[in-house]
Amino acid sequence: MKRFILAFSLATLVVAFVSYILAQNPQDALHAADGNSFTRIVSIFISPIPNAPFTATVSTEWTRQTSDGAAVVVKNHRMVARDSQGHVFEERRRFVPADSNSQSLLFQMDYVDPALHTRTVCLPPSSTCEVRGFFEPVSTSTIPVGPMADGKHYLSREDLGKSETEGLETIGTRETITTNPSTMGNDREVTLTKEFWYSPKLGVNLLVKRIDPLQGTQVFTVSNISLAEPDARLFVIPAKYKVTDDRPSAPIPAK
């Protein structure tokens, strides 16, 4: 009986509070509801190439400076895998403070199928998935140095030689992209620098460092690399998830 009275009292309190909020006169408020903003970082790209299976951990460290000189550093880690057929699986996780022992929260899982040219995005909180078309991004490594095609940027490139990451040979390159004034509302040139350490064996950048005056410094590191064939279950969408096809046409292909 006491539990019932307590539950009833709490429910009454919640209803009363909500009613109070809804009943407020807009003229009594100090301001209207506020929006928000967020930035999402896309770290390394894993091409769905065949005959180069691996499993690894991708770690990100993102450092930004505030206007008063304080440093804000966050981190996350996620598992990635690719099988011999070129199927790619990637976790997406939230950032946590760099000095925290908190685990990075899993909020998304991506499945790329090169044969079907699809990327299926699954959201664990809602147990839902969307099938989308898959297109590989264009790499600046194929763009010659000098003025870029849009006439608003200039690309320079530096050879950093060769190194090794977890037994894999890597090729180092530093690229600098200079953005002309007035291109994006900037009153002077803005320079973005990216450093890549690329594994020809895997076709993946094993270390990337971005120095961006707008976004701060971002470092992406691939570690715990295993070249064994990944567990096939990694590339199977969980049975309990509801899948919808978000492409302009065509239902989900039968398997």
Description:
This protein is mainly beta. Helix content is 9%, strand content 44%. The chain has 1 helix and 14 strands. It has one helix at residues 2-23, and strands spanning 54-65, 71-82, 88-93, 96-97, 106-113, 118-123, 128-133, 146-147, 153-165, 168-179, 190-199, 204-212, 216-226, 242-245. Strand 12 and strand 13 (216-226) form a beta hairpin. The termini are far apart.
| Overall strand count | 14
Individual helix count: 1
Order of helices and strands: HEEEEEEEEEEEEEE
Strand content: 35-45%
Globally, the shape reads globular
Mean of the pLDDT scores?
88
Helical content stands at under 10%
Helix vs. strand class: mainly beta
Distance between the termini: 55 Å
- What value does the Rg take, in angstroms? 24 Å
- Unreliably modeled segments: 1-11
Largest beta-sheet details: 14 strands, mixed
Q: What is this entry, summarized?
A:
The protein is 9% helix and 44% strand.
Which features would summarize this protein structure in a list?
255 residues; mainly beta; 1 helix; 44% strand; disordered N terminus
Produce the secondary structure layout:
Layout: H1 2-23, E1 54-65, E2 71-82, E3 88-93, E4 96-97, E5 106-113, E6 118-123, E7 128-133, E8 146-147, E9 153-165, E10 168-179, E11 190-199, E12 204-212, E13 216-226, E14 242-245
